[in-house]
Amino acid sequence: MYTVSVPEEGELVRDVALKSKSCAVIGGGAIGMEIALALKHLGVDVHITKRSEPALPRNVDPDMGTILVDHIKEKGLHVYFGKGIDSINGKEVVESVTIGGEMIPVDFVVMAAGVDSNIDLGEKMGIECERGSIKTNERMETSIPSVYAIGDNCLSHHMIDKTPARIALATTAYRQAMVAGVNAAGGDAVYDGTLGTFVSFVGDLEVSATGYNTPGAERAGYEVVSGRANTLDKPTWMPDAKEISIKVLADVETGKLLGGHSIGTEGTDWRINMIALGIKKGMTLSEFASVELAYCPPVSELYDPLLMATDVALRKLDAKKRRRG
Amino acid sequence: MYTVSVPEEGELVRDVALKSKSCAVIGGGAIGMEIALALKHLGVDVHITKRSEPALPRNVDPDMGTILVDHIKEKGLHVYFGKGIDSINGKEVVESVTIGGEMIPVDFVVMAAGVDSNIDLGEKMGIECERGSIKTNERMETSIPSVYAIGDNCLSHHMIDKTPARIALATTAYRQAMVAGVNAAGGDAVYDGTLGTFVSFVGDLEVSATGYNTPGAERAGYEVVSGRANTLDKPTWMPDAKEISIKVLADVETGKLLGGHSIGTEGTDWRINMIALGIKKGMTLSEFASVELAYCPPVSELYDPLLMATDVALRKLDAKKRRRG
Prior knowledge:
2 copies of one chain form a homodimer. The first copy, chain A, has 325 residues and is α/β, with parallel strands linked by helices. The first copy, chain A, is built from 9 helices and 16 strands. A 5-stranded antiparallel β-sheet of chain A has the order 12-13-16-15-14, sandwiched between helices. The longest helix of chain A has 20 residues, at 305-324. The first copy, chain A, is globular and about 65 Å long. The interface between A and B is large, with 53 and 53 residues.
């Protein structure tokens, strides 16, 4: 679909892949799945494993995650999600991996199991750190006045409930940088927090998410109501109408949006951006359901999947409230 | 790009077109431009005329409208915007039209110069009408209790300043119908008004708009500040990055969003939907500028054209305020 220049590490992996028959990818996040599919594309037999079973468990709900798991299986990957890795075996060179007690011969292994911040500089300066990240206040200032931190290695806060959050996304870094820049230059800007809004490709599928997913929201203490729509992004009679799934989440107590995620082949990002904007403004499901959307058949559906999922959530919320009197 | 079934009137126009060499299209709105391009596509030499000079003068600003005019000229249409039509000439059959004093031989003429509501039924019932439309309150109820009106023939209200507005769009009709339906069934719903949010195609160009454009906002009594960005929808190094122009409008006094319009080949609709949501929530430029958007290179740009246009408007607003002390 697109070509990018491959950095040195990428070239190394590619050279090894072109000489190999099989490999294991350890880590099944967005990057793990991306590299596994790229290696499969180069003709390598790929085994991918990660500790937890659902795909992208911090971003999408398990029922949506299965769409991704099914897709990478269809693409020919051997998927061992929920099994982790017992051992990498071999002398001098890798000979096999053991996954869930099963020994699988592989020629090489790619580790894609998370990132760690390098906060050495901050620690040397005596800046307050927590959870391996540099702590910042809402002005993106560290514990040392006039020293700011942004991006992957800073611990900032979540937009919804202001709890500490470290989100390693360019989107987050960019917005934090705007705030830090204004403040460093003598202005007074406040970062309103992150929702972890993101879009990525997993094979042919575009996946986007913002805010909490159901497990995340429940961990944060919310009772969640959600609505899901699986439909087409344009009228059925448009030959280029494409399937899209979207899920909208809200807090039962207040009816306010908590998050959303979407999987399709295009246009998932902006629907999720709409939810991100709705969360930023503290919108309820019922308010969000009445947003005015542009419509014409070659572009969109009159009753957009986003509105459909919102309405499903809204009806479930109303039913819940009626039951409780 | 897409195929649709042609209704009877369309078939008639097509049959005439296939036997003709040239025609005039009177009316250069979205429908006029669409049919003119379709006729050109069938091999007809097309002259298109309308009274006002800018393209879509109620939806986009003249500087953006020129993108559309240039495009239909490139497609081979003879464009006489701002000239209207003096006469249609001929006995029994059309022989020519006179536009701005110039006589142009044509084989047939297509009228695409606006729509009128059929409000006969409403008038017979004694329902209050105004400007050729059926008046409704914010519950979509007419002057006769329990009789509701929605869609193209009802006079409803604008979302921003609650002034009377008749917008002949499916989007509007759909949202009004939701409100009327709830109320007719004994519920209590309020229509929060229309922004005229729309998307359409003009040749290869997708055009979207919401809220006021600059002339419209000025007529409504606002002092307008706007920002425009002409850029790519993805990073420059993505081979499928496409040009997009977007303009964001706000009220100088309050800084609140008033509207926006965008022209590109795709993705104009959701950027405009974001502005529609921002208007609904009374967002200021500065608040809107900090929305969190999903980013990855094959899908989007980190500093999205929408944010760029918003920032341009914001800086112009700040400069205006500084100058005024």
